[in-house]
């Protein structure tokens, strides 16, 4: 019997801490579900029981940069095998808060990981596989830092980094976007939420629902 299910789609949200991804992820998931689609919302690092344990280590335990990068990709490998690919194969859409672009931005751009080592890990963990659409929320680090501080939540070790770190992360995200313009859309995140939501809806509608 032929499988007639429509293929699942993989969408990722990226940006520095405080860029405002969370509420927009929820809005996009609601939009997709309103169209009758089955959507799996997830995050990185995390997304699986093992991934969440690794997330706790990554966010709170000091470690060598290369250990950090390898743990990020270890969590990602489990995420792909246990959750992302099974969902896509079942015809569900997957919306993830971060994926490999975050590792490029934070570990290569922010911390200075050798780009060749990053590429080797990327090609090992998911050769030829990328999200179909990545939305990078671009925001000045000083605005993002003020947003994070206003939440009153105890910051993790990434959120405690200095502004120059986030300047490098932001620059790396924009560089990654220039490297893959057909996949990555840069969203100006310093606008009212309703304007951003309208832009996201227009992007997704143009790509899949015309």
TrEMBL record:
InterPro entries, alphabetized: P-loop_NTPase, Thymidylate_kin-like_dom, Thymidylate_kinase
Similarity comment: Belongs to the thymidylate kinase family.
Keyword vocabulary terms for this entry: ATP-binding, Kinase, Nucleotide biosynthesis, Nucleotide-binding, Transferase
Protein's job: Phosphorylation of dTMP to form dTDP in both de novo and salvage pathways of dTTP synthesis.
Catalytic reaction(s) noted: dTMP + ATP = dTDP + ADP
First-tier enzyme category under EC: transferase
Annotated positions binding ATP: 15-22
Record carries keyword Kinase: yes
EC nos: 2.7.4.9
Coiled-coil segments on the chain, per record: none
Pfam families to which the protein is assigned, alphabetical: Thymidylate_kin
Designated name of the protein: Thymidylate kinase
GO MF term list: dTMP kinase activity
The UniProt record lists the keyword Kinase: yes
Domain Thymidylate kinase-like: 13-199
């Amino acid at each position: 019997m032929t499988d007639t299910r429509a293929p699942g789609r993989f969408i990722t949200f990226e940006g520095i801490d405080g860029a405002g991804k969370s509420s927009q992820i929820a809005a996009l998931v609601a939009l997709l579900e309103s169209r009758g689609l089955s959507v799996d919302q997830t995050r990185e690092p995390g997304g699986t029981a093992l991934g969440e344990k690794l997330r706790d280590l990554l966010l709170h335990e000091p470690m060598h940069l290369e250990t950090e990068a390898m743990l990020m990709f270890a969590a990602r490998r489990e995420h792909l095998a246990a959750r992302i690919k099974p969902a896509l194969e079942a015809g569900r859409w997957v919306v993830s808060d971060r994926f490999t672009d975050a590792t490029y931005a934070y570990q290569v751009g922010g911390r200075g990981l050798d780009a060749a080592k990053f590429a080797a890990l990327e090609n090992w963990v998911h050769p030829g596989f990328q999200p179909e659409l990545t939305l990078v929320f671009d925001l000045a680090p000083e605005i993002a830092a003020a947003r994070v501080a206003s939440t009153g939540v105890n910051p993790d070790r990434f959120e405690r980094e200095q502004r120059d770190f986030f300047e490098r992360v932001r620059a790396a995200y924009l560089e990654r976007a220039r490297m893959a313009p057909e996949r990555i859309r840069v969203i100006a995140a310093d606008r009212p939420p309703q304007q951003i939501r309208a832009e996201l809806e227009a992007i997704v509608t143009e790509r899949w629902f015309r």
